[in-house]
Amino acid sequence: MSSKRILLVDDHLDTNRAVTVLLQRRGYTIDSATSMHEALALAAENSFDLIISDVGLPDGSGLELITTLKQKGPVLAIAVSGYCSEDDIRRSKEAGFVEHVAKPFNFAHLESLIKKVLQL
After folding, report:
1. Taking the model in full, what pTM does it have?
2. How far is CA 2 from CA 17, 55, 92, in A?
3. CB of 68 within 8 A of CB of 53?
4. 46 pLDDT exceeds 60?
5. What is the pLDDT averaged over residues 8-29?
6. Which of 38, 55, 49 is nearest to 5 (CA)?
7. Cβ of 41: how many Cβ atoms within 10 Å?
8. How many domains does the chain have?
9. Is 18 strand, coil or helix?
10. What is the CA radius of gyration of the chain?
11. Rounded distance, CA 105 to CA 44, Å?
12. 69: closest CA among 90, 41, 33?
């Protein structure tokens, strides 16, 4: 598999580290951020094939992050959230996320969505 570059944004450090390691083991290049502003800084300096972002971040939201990044060009993104009502999912899709995954998530499910979104 060719290495795809993913930006992972999650303020829960243990989740961030664990998902980073699991994705790296599967051949992805991972940059990780724990806040919206850190993610915006990384995205300003790099291009990513996919963004996986928690919706609830300490300094904003994943919705704001994707809305801001879309202003600069197309973005492929998967939302990860503890909030998964129909309204929450609708709002994430309206912001630009192509998928919405409920926390806590099954890594195999997330991995299958990554492959689907990236068309691998």
Report:
1. 0.94
2. 22, 28, 28
3. no
4. yes
5. 95
6. 49
7. 12
8. 1
9. helix
10. 13
11. 28
12. 41
Domain limits at 13? 5-117
Amino acid at 7: L
5 closest CA partner among 21, 19, 24: 24
* Structure tokens, 91: 């709002």
How many angstroms separate the Cα of 12 from the Cα of each of 24, 59, 63, 111, 112?
Answer: 18, 13, 17, 19, 22
To which H or E segment does residue 74 belong? none
The token pair that represents 34 in the structure block: 């724990």
Strand arrangement, sheet containing 29-33: 29-33, 5-9, 50-54, 77-81, 99-102
Res 20 pLDDT > 70? yes
| CATH label of the domain that carries residue 104 | 3.40.50.2300
